[in-house]
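Hi R.,

Here's the chain you asked about this morning:
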Amino acid sequence: MTSLQAPKQRVSLHYAVATDNGAVLPIKGQGTVSIKPDVVDDTLRFVFTTEAGSALEVAISRTRFSIDCRTGSDLTNLVTSKDEKLLLTLPELRQPYWVSIDSNNMRVRYGKGEMLRHLMLLEFQWDTESTYALKDFSKDLRHVDIKGTVKDHLRVMQIPVTLDPPPTVIPTSAITMEVIAGNSASVVNDLSPVCQRLYANVAGPGITLNSPDFPEFAQAIQYSIVTEGALCNSKLKKKEEEFGYLRITLDTNMGDSPGQPYVLEIWPAGNGSPIHDHGKACAVIKVLHGQIQVSWFSSLSPKLLTPWGSMIAHAGDVTFLTPDYYQIHQLKNPSPKAGGDFCATIQCYRYPDDDEAHYEYFDYIENGQIEHFSPDSDWEYLDFKKKIREEWGKAMETAAK
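And the predicted structure, written out as tokens:
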């Protein structure tokens, strides 16, 4: 497992647009195209063409990967490889395949999973002295056709894959020249409008676990987790090991999120979630107490259980996910089970404004299968807080005797 390292420059977020019938690059000579095929006849082909008919083709089969360019009747092979990591993995492993065209930087990139630099598997580069015909027509590439499969799950992003948006989010007041130069955080204004709204609702200083009316709330939760027969301890014992955390909902499902949009999640030391996605929803996660490890996966598949990267977020940190970035993850409290402190996060979800399907489940991996989790609630927040306060009060009275 590799830890996410900050690139050397800052990058803004751009978002892919779904399309079912081929595609047009919004900007000539640049962009990224991704498809997640169910079935491929023999070879999956990305064919980028100019108005004049010149073409760049990336072909992926189970035995061979290639990049070719064509001008008139002249066909030139640029790359040929039998490296297994580049090849088609269907039907054993279903995942997105993407190709990035970057005529400004004179390169083609290819990867699997989300359209991220960390998931790039191959780069082909040329320069101004190259004899490849691609050098002359790359800036005119505009039309995209996908061959060898049904054109479902096709997405187009207007920029090439260059730098990855950092998963940590900061407010505009926290940006510095060092942040810009080091690309060490995503600024909230660079997020999608949906994520910006979610961030505005939970990132403020008033969203804390301990409050003036119950300053020992965190201490009382830890007591309830580790004390035999206490409220949280009893509830956790009834849960499956893969779901060894508590979901405390703050409001009601208003029809624009998978389940309730705001959820306080309590993570006992050493416990975590299964690998799961989020129904193509956007989310913002703020750590309220302790620390949480977030690990990301390039596909939701029982055949792919190794994360491509991870981070540990601490109290006060905020992270995000969208349909295009960090959508598949696993959360775990990395503190040791023996003597470790719990973690509390507030998760807030919302579908993108252009999502008209509203898939209501989080899919997850369990026992080699993909299962469906309908977001539920262990308690409503105000009721949970009341019960914990009462339990803590009795514990304090007993201790004082």
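The first strand starts at residue 17 and ends at 19.

Let me know if you need anything else.
M.
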